[in-house]
Specification:
The protein is mostly helical and 294 residues long. Helix content is 80%, strand content 0%. The chain starts with 5 loop residues before the first helix and ends with a helix.
Length: 294
């Protein structure tokens, strides 16, 4: 993996993540969301455990367990709400709204690690929010119902909690390495989801088991790749690559679910992406200015 540059690894990770979302949406049409979430993390944890074992069983210290426990809880909430949103929103729309997370990240970092929120982050957040408003106006009238509104709320909540998990992952990836991070990011959320899934949901359909296994494989690949990328490069370098997911989501939505996004969705997505790129550019410019000799 060291032979590949982090941006290329990130491109592969986003492709795997988009494929995972499409499989989740397909499975959630006929299976309870909690069962889909449990399968996603259980199979991924099993595969990640095999990778961890093959790597020589690197030590997982009590400090690591404590550090990953909080992140695992946050991941579980983020995943279940996003998975549910996929059952009521078009795939491309859910992905577009989720793009808001980099704009939320500075405020999350302020709350968690007391980072200063720059004025550019405030400007970018306003532009990104305008993009969200435009994107949701492209929803067909048949979908403009309470379920659709709840789906939008679920995506926004998921984006917020995902931003929290990404801020936490940066520190853990640097300290623990991608193998442990990818294993813990599946194992702990799986434990958290297991109790309500088993207690409240019927078993999955037998015919869907091959897809559940594939979901676990692609989820483990996604977590390994994204952890590897973030362990070798700064978040501001990798964040813009996340937006290629819209291309994957549009393609999967059209081919698998017969979804045709409205033009407003792409206009809103363009605003959100522009806001994120503007914030990233300003961060790099300020960092370069601070590093240059006076």
């Amino acid at each position: 993996m060291r032979a590949f540059p982090p941006p290329l690894i990130m491109v592969a990770a986003i492709g795997a993540g988009a494929t995972m979302d499409a499989v989740i949406k397909y499975l959630a049409q006929s299976n309870p969301v909690l069962i889909v979430a449990l399968a996603r993390y259980a199979f991924a944890a099993a595969i990640s455990f095999g990778v961890w074992w093959h790597a020589g069983k690197p030590a997982i210290t009590p400090t690591m367990w404590r550090g990953h426990a909080l992140r695992g809880l946050i991941i579980a909430f983020s995943a279940v709400t996003f998975f549910w949103s996929l059952t009521v929103l078009p795939l491309a729309e859910a992905v577009t709204i989720s793009f808001i997370y980099p704009l939320v990240a500075p405020f999350v970092a302020r709350a968690i690690v007391a980072e200063q929120v720059r004025p550019t982050a405030l400007v970018a957040a306003v532009i990104g929010f305008a993009g969200v408003l435009i994107a949701v106006t492209g929803t067909p009238s048949s979908e403009a119902n309470s379920q659709h509104t709840l789906g939008l709320i679920a995506v926004l909540f998921s984006a917020l909690t995902f931003a929290v998990s990404m801020v936490l992952m940066r520190a853990r990836a640097l300290a623990d390495g991608p193998i442990i991070v990818s294993f813990m990011a599946s194992f702990i959320p799986g434990l958290i989801v297991a109790v309500p899934a088993i207690a409240l949901s019927p078993p999955p359909h037998l015919a869907d088991w091959p897809l559940f296994v594939f979901l676990g494989v692609i989820a483990a690949l996604f977590m390994y790749l994204i952890s590897h990328a973030y362990a070798r490069a700064e978040a501001q370098q990798l964040a813009p690559i996340h937006y290629t997911e819209l291309l994957w989501a549009s393609g999967y939505g059209f081919v698998l679910f017969h979804e045709t996004p409205q033009p407003q969705l792409y206009i809103g997505a363009a605003l959100i992406i522009a806001a994120c790129l503007y914030a990233a550019y300003q961060d790099r410019r300020l960092a370069a200015k601070a590093a240059s000799p006076a």
